Fold each of these.
Amino acid sequence: MESGTTEYKGYVVHVYCKTIKDGLHIASCAIWEDGAVVQDARSIGRNHASPADAKVAAYEWAKLWIDGNS
């Protein structure tokens, strides 16, 4: 499982990616604020061709969530 972390507008975003059947990839992310999880998205798409594509999709989803909830 691949993972990554970034900060955006004071939130910390942890992204995880794993390979599922047929070489496709799925991502999930946890959004943290002040040391607590404020959003946990377990499945962001299922048809990403690479782990990098899945992670980009998860980061973009997290940014949209943060923009809409901050």
Amino acid sequence: MLAEELNRYGLWDHLPAELRETAVAEVATGCYPLHSDFLSEQVRFFADGEELAEGGVEGFLRALAPALVRYGVVLEVETVPDVDDYVVSINGIRCVVWSPEDWEGEDPWALSTVRPLAVVNRLLAAAGCGAPRAHTLYAGGNEGLVFLMDPRAAAAMRASGLFPGHEVPADGESAKWPPPES
């Protein structure tokens, strides 16, 4: 059952046992697993693509930072002055959030979401954190969401067939937009 898989893959590990049981029971009765208030600011984070593209990446990553500490990643983020490109430094890694060319035919709001998250995912991997990675829903949209979750949880949601492809979190490193339908 999907609820048990999501629990096994740690979606609710941040919760006390009784709340974890409540979350599992909600999903077992048909509730969408990622709309739960139990996930706010521990697993689920708002990522407004327009705001990120307009200089909000540093602030967004600072808001994400406390949750990353659980996984051994301490973020150091700063916006890097650049003539043309929007660049941030994430733990010393230069990340081009967007360049002027990205505004010609690309989706700069989505790129402003996934490019910094690709760096975060590399930092999680380097920290020896085997499971949690940043995943996105509606990347680049004004209602964009980021989830820190085990990729197997997203795969379980996809494999369940219960949700359309656009309602299953995509790997945060993927710059493909929109995500493929399943």
